[in-house]
Amino acid sequence: MQRRNFLLGLFSLAIFAPINALAAIWNKAAFEAIKLDDVSKNLNVNHETYSGDIQITAPDRAENGAIVQVGIKSNIVNTESIAILVEKNPTALIANFKFSNGAEPFVVTRIKMAETSDIKVVVKAGNQYFTNSKNVVVLENGCG
């Protein structure tokens, strides 16, 4: 009986430990924030510096805001994370990607945009934050 309880406990630990680890890195307050300032506060961003080393690939005009493909590449040394924000969405923070062990800071994803707005990217490198943005004209609402 003790062996069965031990194995059940071990199995439960194997299943629930990854879920708890994900919950520890999930920043619920940042993802629920509506305003850009609230997102920055919840991500502990106190000062951002403009950087042309952040490349944003997105259409100038999106036919349908429900599917807007965005590519982001950071040429900033020691990039730790890339956050994608859209001010005029129901929640401003779209994604927050973390990089480690020399991973290339490059992402391609599809996002939803409620209306014409800037796609703002915030890159963390060390204790510094860098930003760049690109305006996308949305012809059909994607967050309805």
From TrEMBL:
InterPro entries: SoxY, SoxY_sf, Sulphur_oxidation_SoxY. Pfam families: SoxY. Residues 51-143 form the Ig-like SoxY domain. Transmembrane segments: none annotated. This is Sulfur oxidation protein SoxY. It comes from mine drainage metagenome.
